[in-house]
Amino acid sequence: MSVLLTLEKIIPPPSFLMMPSTGVDISDTSLKYIRFAPTAKPGAKRQLQAWGEVDIPDGVLSRGSVLDQKKLISVLEEFKSKTNIDHIRVSLPEERAYLFETEIKRSTPAKEIRGLLEFRLEENVPIPAREAFFDYDILEDRTTDQSLRVVVAAYSRETILNYYDACIAAKLTPVSFEVEAQAMVRSVLPHHAPGAHMLVDFGKTRTGIGIVLGGVLMYTSTIEFGGNQLSEILRKELGELSESEITQIKNTQGLIKGVIDTRSYDALISTISVIKDEISSRIQYWHSTREENGVRRISSVVLCGGSVNLKGLPEYLTEALGIPTERANVWQNAFSLDTVIPPIDLRHSYGYATAIGLALKRTV
Amino acid sequence: MINLLPPTARRSIVREYWLRVATVWMFLLGTGCLIIAALLLPTYVQIHIQLRALSESVNASTEMITSYDTLAQELLTANDRAKILINAASSTPFSTYVNSIEELSGQAISINTYTFTRPKTGEATITVSGVARTRQELADFKDVLSTDGAFSRVELPISNLIKEKDLLFSMQLIVSTSTNPL
Questions:
Q1: Is pLDDT of A364 > 80?
Q2: Quick check: ipTM above 0.90?
Q3: Which end of chain A has fewer CB atoms surrounding its CB within 10 Å, N or C?
Q4: pTM (2 d.p.)
Q5: Burial A291-319 (b: 16+ CB within 10 A, else e)
Q6: Contacting residues of B for A163, CB less than 8 Å apart
Q7: Is the Cβ of A161 closer than 8 Å to some Cβ of chain B?
Q8: Gap from B38 CA to chain A (nearest CA, Å)
Q9: Could you report the per-residue pLDDT of A31-69, keeping only the tens digit for each?
Q10: What value does the CA radius of gyration of chain A take, rounded to a whole number of Å?
Q11: What is the CA radius of gyration of chain B?
Q12: Which of A305, A327, A304, A323 shows the shortest CA–CA distance to A314?
């Protein structure tokens, strides 16, 4: 594999062959997109070609479900008119995802794996197999002589077709659909990062949690709590402030206890502790599943998402969870920050983690 | 890598991917052919020029060969004619023999016809026909001719000597090869 990668660096395939596509992260409140282009700049493989955000009105999407497809189409059309692109890679809401890990005999012919997994789907997912679209990934690191470990991701047919039909109606060609957290892994963790890591996507309306083992997403969960709730609590405590003022308070004071005025800290800490507890319970659940010589123990927590700029959040979670927690460097797999200065500032870059991960994907 | 596209859409994307792969290969193949064609163009031009020059040379040579053949044929004809002329120059003219025969015939022999025969190969002959007054004079005439160096042999049929007087005769004179008449 490394020989092929080296060869690819020496003789890069034409971008036409790689089907250049734009990463599109559709959440309940916004559509974020990122597109990379190859560059001849020394030390940099790619540069940012297009990026942006299109607001999604309320009532179009709720917890990943498409409520108003016409409006979603118009949002996608607006995105299409802005960027004039055809091929996109879209993230699917993790609230609607079903992930499970299973084991199959190593001798199973490749053609029969999918059929076999269809039977396993019935046992692990609360939707009939005929009503689901699923795909799988073989965990090479954890495959033995007798068995193959496989992780399966499934969505209801309706969820996927709602997104797919909307894309087609907006004259966009989806190249891939994948779970939001899986796309995020590609941007916030180094390639083939060993061990288990937890990704926390702290969004406006909800917090997504993903657990990654050997670079493969194994578990997802959603906490119905996001940055907007923190803003509401601050407003209750501090009075009616504008969104920019609230954001300013969150980003500059956050979870750092003030000497004179501790109102914002008091308001935020009680709410954040709820999130901390939710995260902690998921870590405990993960650690309670099959132990494999400590490989499954979560070694780090990586934070990203639009609301992750809350001051003191990584330090608080490190202390509370007992696991090193840090904000992600979303550009680490795109280019080196020593050679390229991205036009998106650091604070906003966390919100683009999924779109970046989607744009980095190169296979069909 | 997990891709949750609907299966039909995924097949369509995979098909498009392979179409692109084929397009890239065709483009590379076409570019390679163009480069090779461009590199071979000077060689082609040179070979073409050389071929044309060689073709012209072959045509010129063919024309020359045809000319040589014609000339050779004409030369052979000329040679034949020259041989004839040379032979003619070296042969004794027929008139010399006629004069000689006339001189040797005297008054008693009246010669009516001369027939000269010269085959391509062999001896030239002169057939002389006429009337002799007496048998003796005819015999004398034959003897005179036999002793003349111009003729190697004189043949007079015995039947010509049957009559005593006014003998019609026809004798054949074989010309000596050293003095072959024209």
A1: no
A2: no
A3: N
A4: 0.72
A5: eeeeebebebbbbbbbbbbbbbbbebbee
A6: none
A7: yes
A8: 24
A9: 999 999 888 777 777 889 999 999 999 999 988 889 999
A10: 21
A11: 48
A12: A327
